[in-house]
Amino acid sequence: MRSQRLSSPFQSGPTVPHWVNRLVVGLLRSPFHALLSGTTMLLTFTGQKSGRRYTIPVRYLRTNETLLTLTDSPWWRNLRGGVPVDLSIAGQNVRGRAEVNTDPDDVEQAIYSMLRQTPSDARFYQVHLDRHGQPDMASLQQAVQVHVLIEIQLEHPA
Q: Which of 23, 24, 98, 132 supports an S-S bond with 57, CB 3.0-4.6 Å?
């Protein structure tokens, strides 16, 4: 069901150009990571079909020992079923277990929370904000249709 929703004409391709992602990955791996690492982390996972390791920069929101991120790109399918992931957060390498959540209410709440943290990201979600910074409900509902929520439970060393 979710993959049908993701093929919506609302989604027009990658939210961020690949060259920008490469630049952000380099910055987050550098001593200058603090410029972005308060809201952006590196997520590394293994492709289910290819076995290849992928590292992508994603915005995140931390709630206790859980990190939330959203995507409208198809890479999320590699995380179905709860898979181990490696993260680089604020210059620190940690491990976690990622779960895909497609519940529309949870996705909506996550988008809303992410926009409270970083209102300038509204353009990436294609959500319009009013003059008070509140999301337009019609565009928020459209965004819910093309995004999935990734919940990452941080693992602690034994």
A: 24
pLDDT at 4: 39
Higher pLDDT residue, 20 or 64?
64
Which residue has tokens 């439970």? 153
- CA–CA dist 4, 146 (Å, integer): 9
Q: Which residue has the tokens 């919506």?
A: 8
Domains and CATH numbers, the chain: 2-154 (2.30.110.10)
Helices (H), ranges, 52-136 = 104-117, 122-125
- H or E stretch including 2? helix 2-6
Dig out the tokens for 75 from the structure: 């890479």
pLDDT band at 26 (very low <50, low <70, confident <90, very high): confident
The answer on pLDDT for 122 being more than 50 is: yes
- What distance in Å separates the CA atoms of residue 41 and residue 92, rounded to the nearest whole number? 10
Exposed, middle or buried by CB within 10 Å (0-12, 13-18, 19+), for 16?
Answer: middle
Using alpha carbons only, how large is the chain's radius of gyration in Å?
15
